[in-house]
Structure formats: C-alpha cells, structure tokens
Amino acid sequence: MSIEDNKALILSLYNARQQGNFALLDQIISPDFITLLPGSPQPLRGSEGIKQMIIHFNNTFHGVNTAINDQIAEGDKVVVIYTTSATTSVPVMGMPPGQQLRVVGIDVWQVMNGKVVNYFGLSQPIPNA
Question: What domains are there in the chain, each with its CATH number?
Fold first, then answer.
C-alpha cells in the first residue's frame, strides 16, 4: 500500500470509531494488532481490543466530536494530530459528570499489508480560555 493508502485507511478507522461501525474495524485491524494503554493491566489485542477501548471511552464521555487536524505519514507509520471535545458521563480525571473537555492529541499508527498492527497515542487537555 502507498503512504496515501495508509493515510486513508487510518482516516477510515477514525470515521468508524465516530460512527460506531465495529464491522469496519474488524476489516481494517489486524488480528496481530497490539497496544498497551496507560492504566490498562493487559495489552489490547486485535479488533476486539480496539472495540474495548472505544466502548470504555464512549461509556466515560458523550457528545464526542473528533477533528483531524493533520496526518503525516512515512513508511508504515501514520501520525494523526487531532482535537476531541466531549462531555464527561461519569467522574473521570477529577472532573464531575457533565463537565466539558477538550483535548489535543497525537496518535501513531502502524500499517502492514493493509491492516493496522500497532498504536501509540498521547493527549492532553486544552485549558478553558
């Protein structure tokens, strides 16, 4: 796959997440996918791992809107710079339910043979101005 194909694949992953299209995740996430998230006792594996991450996020926040600010790709890596806004559904990170939150983040995805095989991401809250 070309770099542009890899970028399109990762963009489709964000769209699938936003729309709750788990069937598409099964198609684009490799069975060999693995990532370790902070606070997670075990690595997340395969499309089921991504689904668990999305379900946890959706149970914690509602009204989620993610804007892709930029994509940068080289070789088998695609970097996504994004801004997400959401409202807390439960107490999280010292915030009560109903608190609005905006974060900026950077995700690094690895694509091999047309499938997503690895993920690493960092995000931080954007202070209210």
Answer: 3-125 (3.10.450.50)
